Amino acid sequence: MFWNVGKYSERTAVISTADKDITYGELQQRVDDFRAQLPMSGHKQLVLLLCANDTATLTAYVACLQAGHAVMLLDGLLEITLLEHIVRTYEPNWIVSPSHVHAFEGYYKSSSTVWMKQEFSRTADIYPDLAVLLSTSGTTGSAKFVRLSYANLQANAQSIATYLQLNETERAITTLPFQYSYGLSVINSHLLVGGALLITNDSILSREFWSFFKDQKATSLSGVPYTYQMLQRLRFGQMELPSLRYFTQAGGRLAPNLVQSFQNMAVESGRRFYVMYGQTEATARMSYVPPNRLAEKADSVGIAIPNGTFRLDEVSSELIYEGPNVMLGYAETGEDLAKGDELGGTLHTGDLAEIDDEGYVYIKGRMKRFIKLFGLRMNLDEIERQIEVKFSLPVACTGGDDLLLIFTEDESKIAVLTEYVRQLYKLHVSSFSVKALPNLPRLENGKMNYLKLKDMMP
Q1: What is the rounded distance in angstroms from the CA atom of residue 147 to the CA atom of residue 328?
Q2: Which residues pair with 95 in a beta bridge?
Q3: pLDDT for res 175
Q4: 400-456 pLDDT per residue, tens
Q5: Which of 237, 251, 254, 286 is most buried, most CB within 10 Å of its CB?
Q6: What is the pLDDT of residue 257?
Q7: pLDDT-based confidence at 458, cuts 50/70/90?
Q8: What is the mean pLDDT of residues 191-203?
Q9: Cα gap 319→348, rounded to integer Å
Q10: Over 90: is that where the pLDDT of 142 sits?
Q11: For residues 250 and 184, what is the distance between their CA atoms, to the nearest angstrom?
Q12: Where does the AMP-dependent synthetase/ligase domain start and stop, copy by copy (predicted)?
């Protein structure tokens, strides 16, 4: 299993901007030292890990997996009232926070980074195969989590390592949050092959990030659509990055013109560019576009990953995925941690899609991302796609059954967008509105924060 890190003893495991470089053998020693801090109760327990992109978080994560405990991953900077709500809901046995200084009611500090529950009241046991709990809602503090098994984590890490052709010479730099399924999958797949992790909290917009990237010879870069919008502004294609082998994109749809632009960069520089599709409910990733097919499949999310399959619901055209990386189910209370595998490896994605004769999937929108204007059913994702393709700028759509709201970051485009939408969809100007924001609101994983946009409805 990828968390058995000691087997790569002499290889470099972590290179960090905030800590000394360590080998896999030294990482295992830190894991052993951390496990010694945790009281040995003899039964499986719940650990809440407040994450950052640092060696301490990685150590605690691996330690929990090795010890057989269930670990709940949350942003270490989550707003305190939201964090306390989750703590009250799940009553973790331990709270681990390498940098958090907040005192938790009902817990005492048993070591420099570990808080232990004084009295534990959850009556149900934890399902033996439950390994990791990931939030479904970014930074909103929802108590709804995805329940992932050890087999889910291992299967997805193996599939990713296979299609990305990973080996022990990889040096992956952290560009995504540890607790985000995409970011976590990068860590898991590289631990599996014994590659090195270049760990930093620096932003891709900072000079420090690129200095670290070049100095430590990073071999890959991972990003969500927003990452690639920023990379385009940074003139990524003109950067001298001789160590870079490939770059990957997931976490939402990247506009076809950007897909083509980055694919051209990859071809010109002899690199590989992977466009991928996934959900937290499938541990991380479900599909990828082979780089040699990307030019002709720029608007597709690709074919199923190794050991996975896709099909469509015959009535609704909902995309259904089957594979060993499909979650056990959801949890919304502490009692839900006792539940077993409720899905049997089958995930109804909630995405509407088409599949071509070669098995390539084309996402057409979310089943719930619809509004009705004067009885006309409108797909908000499709409206965004049309505008992005036409104007090559990021937009976000929300609304209700009486008003469509379109947001852009370019105030100068309001008039032309208004006229384009009016003509394209034959809408009266009173039924929709185009507004400009300095920055479209995004969640920690780079996806659009539609709930915040919804709050802007008049």
Answers
A1: 6
A2: 48, 115
A3: 93
A4: 777 899 999 999 999 999 999 988 887 888 889 999 999 999 887 778 888 888 888
A5: 286
A6: 86
A7: confident
A8: 96
A9: 6
A10: no
A11: 13
A12: 3-330
Token pair recorded at residue 102: 């907040």
Per-residue pLDDT tens digits for 305-353? 999 999 999 988 999 999 999 999 999 999 999 999 999 999 999 898 9
Spatial distance between the Cα atoms of 416 and 408, rounded to a whole number of angstroms: 12
The residues pairing with 289 across neighbouring beta strands, listed in sequence order, are: 275
What local confidence, expressed as pLDDT, does residue 225 receive?
86
Spatial CA neighbour of 185 closest among 210, 230, 222: 222
pLDDT of 139 higher than 60: no
pLDDT one-digit tens code per residue, 342-351: 999 999 998 9
Single out the residue of 154, 164, 245, 247 nearest to residue 192, CA to CA.
Answer: 154
How far, CA to CA in Å, does 313 sit from each of 305, 310, 318, 320? 20, 10, 5, 7
Q: Which domains does the chain have, with CATH numbers?
A: 1-368 (3.40.50.12780), 370-454 (3.30.300.30)
Sorting pLDDT into bands at 50, 70 and 90, what band is 122? low
Whole-model pTM: value is 0.84
What is the C-alpha R_g of the chain? 22
The number of CA neighbours under 13 Å toward the Cβ of 403 is: 11
Burial of 357 (C-beta count, 10 Å sphere; 0-12/13-18/19+)? exposed
Residue type, 51: C
Q: How far is CA 207 from the centre of its chain?
A: 24
Query: Edge-to-edge, what's the strand order for the sheet holding 361-366?
Result: 309-312, 318-322, 346-355, 361-366
